[in-house]
């Protein structure tokens, strides 16, 4: 859908001519006045996020607000809980049923540590293997060359194991079986069968509200000062970027793929950035206020130029995904769907930026899963500052 004019409900003073990908950059025809806005500081998220949550999770308005408030509390508690647990830390996740952060610790965790976690507001569970042990096993797998029938691997804190995903139709492949035999020797590993292999989500040139690099269409992720971040597989350093109408936006200044899947594009020629994720007319646009990492189990919503708004759950952190082009590390796995052309688009929990769309399997008709590159890693790699709204 090409929009001729887009009004941001929360940024009433900014009018945008034309549409962009998951746009964080806007043309010079936008007004430059200070934005008027209503006070949303007391709410866990904008009306758009709440609407999407109600639609994709089947929640009432009150349940959607309560879950996002609980997730915000769990997100703030997570790094504190890791420090309290210390060497006994065995993983953590948000439990949607209890609305609390669950923290696993090894059996040798002192009673004082368990009491401190309980006092901080976490539910405590006992696990056999520490997070350090599981991360070490995953690191050994990261050094292996995996066949195409292995779609990826990650640490599952709930299972207290490293999960290796194999594509269903490749279960009997000799190379897959040899790889599995090798990884089982590495430590606590379990195997899971998945429906399909992940793929990157760039697309050929079609109409809509994307950005283009040559004949590749992708989606803008988040504004940073001086440009925006997106997926690395969408373009190489030096490649020019144009908007939906063919006008020049800027240039890829940095890009990495595979191994990583991130990039940033400088903005020029009258374009500038604002801290907004588009709702595509389905929901209101969302202000970006920070980049606190949502724990496993949290809700997350995605915006992209093909499938627009969809929500899901964070399924795993720090996953290695074995694309046909090569392995990409430290991705976050979600149950949100995506389609070709959504690459680079925004993942956000509440008003906190999470990352940029990398790839996935399935689609938004039959369902699937999607991975994103965490935003804080991209910012740190290129020394960028996320453009956030502080009103």
Automatic annotation (TrEMBL):
Keywords: Disulfide bond, Hydrolase, Protease, Serine protease, Signal, Zymogen. Pfam families: Pro_Al_protease (PF02983), Trypsin (PF00089). It comes from the Bacteria. Residues 129-182 form the Peptidase S1A alpha-lytic prodomain domain. InterPro entries: Pept_S1_alpha_lytic, Pept_S1A_streptogrisin, Peptidase_S1_PA, Peptidase_S1_PA_chymotrypsin, Streptogrisin_prodomain, Trypsin_dom. The keyword Isomerase does not apply. Residues 228-376 form the Peptidase S1 domain. CDD domains: alphaLP-like. This is S1 family peptidase.
């Amino acid at each position: 859908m090409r929009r001729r004019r887009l009004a941001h409900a929360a940024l009433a003073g900014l009018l945008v001519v034309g549409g962009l990908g998951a746009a964080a950059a806007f043309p010079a025809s936008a007004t430059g006045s200070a934005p008027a806005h209503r006070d949303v500081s007391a709410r866990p998220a904008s009306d758009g996020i709440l609407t999407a949550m109600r639609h994709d999770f089947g929640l009432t308005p009150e349940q959607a607000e309560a879950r996002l408030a609980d997730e915000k509390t769990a997100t703030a508690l997570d790094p504190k809980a890791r420090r309290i647990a210390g060497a006994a830390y065995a993983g953590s996740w948000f439990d949607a049923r209890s609305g609390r952060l669950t923290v696993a610790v090894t059996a040798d965790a002192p009673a004082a540590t368990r009491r401190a976690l309980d006092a901080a507001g976490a539910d405590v569970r006992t696990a056999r293997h520490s997070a350090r042990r599981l991360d070490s096993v995953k690191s050994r797998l990261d050094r292996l060359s995996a066949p195409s029938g292995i779609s990826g691997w990650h640490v599952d804190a709930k299972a207290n194991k490293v999960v290796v995903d194999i594509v269903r139709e490749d279960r009997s492949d000799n190379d897959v079986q040899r790889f599995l035999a090798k990884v089982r020797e590495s430590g606590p590993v379990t195997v899971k069968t998945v429906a399909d292999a992940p793929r990157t989500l760039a697309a050929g040139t079609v109409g809509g509200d994307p950005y283009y690099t040559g004949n590749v269409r992708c989606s803008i992720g988040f504004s940073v000062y001086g440009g925006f971040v997106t997926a690395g597989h969408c373009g190489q350093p030096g490649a020019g970027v144009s908007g939906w109408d063919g006008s020049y936006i800027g240039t890829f200044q940095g890009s990495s793929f595979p191994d990583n899947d991130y990039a940033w594009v400088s903005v020029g020629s009258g374009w500038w950035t604002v801290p907004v994720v588009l709702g595509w007319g389905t929901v209101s646009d969302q202000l970006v206020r920070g980049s606190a990492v949502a724990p496993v189990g949290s809700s997350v919503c995605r915006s992209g130029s093909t499938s627009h708004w969809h929500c899901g759950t964070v399924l795993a952190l720090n996953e290695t995904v074995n694309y046909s082009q090569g392995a990409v590390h430290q991705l976050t796995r979600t149950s949100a769907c995506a389609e070709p052309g959504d690459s680079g688009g925004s993942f956000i929990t509440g008003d906190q930026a999470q990352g940029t769309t990398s790839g996935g399997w399935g689609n938004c008709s039959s369902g699937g899963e999607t991975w994103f590159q965490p935003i804080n890693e991209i910012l740190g790699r290129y020394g960028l500052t996320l453009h956030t709204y502080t009103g």
